Amino acid sequence: MTRPGPGSPWYGATRDAATVPPEVAERALEWLVELQEIDVPAALVDEWTRWRAAHPDHERAWQRIEAVRGRLQPLASPLRSAIAQAALAPPRSDARRRAIKALAVLAFAGGAAWSVAEYTPWRQWSADYRTDIGQRREVVLSDGTRLVLNTDSAVDVRFDAAERRVRLVAGEIFIATAVDALPSPRPFLVETAQGTARALGTEYVVRQFETDTEVSVFQGAVQIRPRHATGEPFLLRAGHHASYTDRAVAAPDAANDTRVAWKDGFIVARSMRLDDFLVELGRYTPDALSCDPAIAGLRVSGSFPVGEVGQVLQALVATLDVRIDSEQRLWRRKLVRLVPGPGTGRG
């Protein structure tokens, strides 16, 4: 196969790229991810070859991918990052599908069918402030408000004469709001995909999930207004935690210090299930963490440093009678799985 050279129109936002059907583009990118595996079966290569030959659109989509891959070789590029995320996600999972869509935006952006602004991965890459996996960052805004970004988080900041607005693109932030110095104090709002949380003299944490937002209030209060809800905003007071969708706020429960311990570099677990603990710990490492279902219900308690993921895993081995199975994968990333230890299940 002949790859397009640097002068090829495939490198731009071309009509050819724009007219590749979305389903064909995504299937081509699925092939790209599948072909990243360490040992690719010959049968899979044959199937991929037949797919390319089955329709001109298939070959055009693959040529586009080849061209963009050639241009974006650095490991730090958004495309490489998205490929790695897709390769690490389980086949046919929601995470794999989200990563494939992000890849489609990056590889085919510029056509009418692809809007970069609609996809969080690209917005996260270009945000005003962002953190990498495992990184935390403190930012003092122009009004004196203090933000702390947790791992793999991103925000855009928009202050004007009418309001102070922080858009949480991805991840989690702690906010300690300052009193606005303007004669007419502007409201302070944190916007997520599901709505807004307005601070009322507040220290609070906001975390963006795929389908909802969580808010934990430690001082003052927060008014939550789901994006598509009617009526008055929901008032969440200090010491409480609630999640909300774009239409409703769930019943609040207690907000304890475990929800903000990350700000000081720790996960505090209180009889947390092992599988849930690994989900939280996995936010702080590029490695994919999981456990065997047979030990998923083991309980974890303690205070664990998020900057020492390897040491935390070794502590689990020492205290829970589990062992670590790991497999090196794409671009030095690993699949790390906890499995039953030699004494598990013995009376």
CATH architecture of the largest domain: Sandwich
Task: Give the structural class.
Answer: alpha+beta
Percent of residues in helices = 25-40%
Q: Report the order of strands and helices.
A: HHHHHHHEEEEEEEEEEEEHEEHEE
Q: Name the overall outline.
A: globular
| Strand content bin | 25-35%
Domain count: the total is 3
* End-to-end Cα distance: 61 Å
Major beta sheet summary: 11 strands, mixed
Total number of helical segments?
A: 9
User: How many strands in all?
Assistant: 16
Q: Uncertain runs with pLDDT below 50, 5 residues or more?
A: 1-15, 71-79, 110-119
Briefly, what CATH class of the largest domain?
Answer: Mainly Beta
Global mean pLDDT: 81
Describe the structure.
The chain is an alpha+beta fold. The chain has 3 domains: 9-124, no CATH class; 129-259, Sandwich (Jelly Rolls), CATH 2.60.120.1440; 265-340, Phage tail protein beta-alpha-beta fold (3-Layer(bab) Sandwich). It is built from 9 helices and 16 strands. The strands form 3 sheets. Strands 1, 2, 3, 4, 5, 6, 7, 8, 9, 10 and 11 form an 11-stranded mixed β-sheet that branches. Strands 13-16-15 form a 3-stranded mixed β-sheet, covered by helices on one side. Strands 12-14 form a two-stranded antiparallel sheet. α2 crosses α4 (56-71), α2 (22-34) packs across α6 and α5 packs antiparallel against α6 (94-108). Residues 1-15, 71-79 and 110-119 have low confidence and may be disordered.
